[in-house]
Amino acid sequence: MAPVKWIHLLIALFASPFLFGVINRTKAFFAGRRGQPLLQSYFDLARLLRKGAVFSRTTTWIFRAGPSVGLASAAAALTLVPFGGGQALFHFSGDAILFAYLLAVMRFFTVLAALDTGSSFEGMGASREVSYSALAEPALILGLAAVARETGSLSLSGMLSGALQLRPEIVLVAAAFAVVFLCENARIPFDDPNTHLELTMIHEVMVLDHSGPDLAFIQYGSAVKLWILGSLVTGLLVPFAEAGPWWVNTGMAVAGMLLLAVAVGVVESVMARLRLTRVPQVLVAAVALSALALLLSVR
Q1: Tell me, what's the pLDDT at 242?
Q2: Is 252 strand, coil or helix?
Q3: What count of other Cβ atoms lies within 10 Å of the Cβ of residue 169?
Q4: Which of 201, 190, 188, 187 is nearest to 119 (CA)?
Q5: DSSP label at 202?
Q6: pLDDT, tens digit, 9 for 90 and up, residues 70-117
Q7: 250-140-271 Cα angle (round to 5)
Q8: Phi–psi pair at 227, nearest 5 degrees
Q9: Contact by Cβ (8 Å): 122, 205
């Protein structure tokens, strides 16, 4: 099964930017427009990689290391996430904890790079990012704990092995993970990746000073992170066959990711961005869902 793990990893690495194209085309459909090509994200990455980078004299090595460390952390986390009901490339007992820490490292260096510019504007975005992540992370950790209690495994490969039943606990965790998925990926209703209004920007404001290959690393890291957290949601909801062919489960997983991208596009088309004061309330509700799932699993 080792080649299957590499196939799943390659699918994630090559197909993750495609999810942005699906989201944008869905939004264009609801707006009555033709929309940009599905492969536009790949064109943007290629264009950025051909450009040069500009660095301010006020920045240090932290600013230059931020995009590279963020992408490396996302790639490392990707190797721990199973896909299609199989096992991840690397799996061991307790890898779920390492997974959460890798996502935290990615965010930490992105915030440090924003603060290293000395810009109060980017500092504002970094402050908001940290405030929201302080509420999103408990929802993720408690949700993983509930699934671990349900499956008896501390490994993501054991938690998302395809043997899960849609019990109330799993449904609650999936709902909490869906909220975390939207928040961590800076999607509506928590953030708008296309906005450039000073009072509403959160994630985008932190990367305004990056350019060229560094910005490409950030955008590609965001695509990988979208795939990673989407794999958690689909891993809980898609009914994989334990004894079924790997290519059937892989096809079901890919279809689940595409449907999730369409769902994100629908949400962004029918909802408006929440007020900044309302965002913590939604995240606290996600924490409550994960905590309730954990309580139901230990009863």
Answers
A1: 66
A2: helix
A3: 24
A4: 201
A5: S
A6: 999 999 999 999 998 888 999 999 999 999 999 999 999 999 999 999
A7: 80
A8: -65, -40
A9: yes
Q: In this structure, are residues 211 and 66 in contact, taking their beta carbons and an 8 Å threshold?
A: no
What distance in Å separates the CA atoms of residue 185 and residue 246, rounded to the nearest whole number? 29
pTM of the model: 0.95
- d(C-alpha 145, C-alpha 86), whole Å: 20
Output the six-digit token pair for 290: 């994960």
Using CA of residue 124, residue 130, residue 136, residue 140, what is the dihedral sign? positive
Residues 6 or more apart from 189 whose CB is under 8 A from it? 182, 267, 271, 272, 273, 274, 282
Mark 199-219 as b/e (b = at least 16 C-beta within 10 Å). eebbbbbbbbbbebbbbbbbb
Burial 145-159 (b: 16+ CB within 10 A, else e): bbbbbbbebbbbbbb
Query: Quick one: what percent of the chain has pLDDT higher than 70?
Result: 96
For residue 158, give both structure tokens.
Answer: 């054991």
Query: d(Cα 47, Cα 177) in Å, to the nearest integer?
Result: 33
Of 74, 63, 38, 89, give the one whose Cα is nearest residue 185: 74
Q: How far is CA 112 from CA 62, 126, 216, 271, in A?
A: 7, 8, 18, 31
Per-residue pLDDT tens digits for 216-253: 999 999 999 999 999 999 999 987 766 568 888 899 99
What are the pLDDT digits (tens) for 157-212? 989 876 677 789 999 999 999 999 999 999 998 988 877 666 667 888 899 899 99
* Per-residue tokens: 237: 């909801």
Write the single-letter amino acid at 46: A
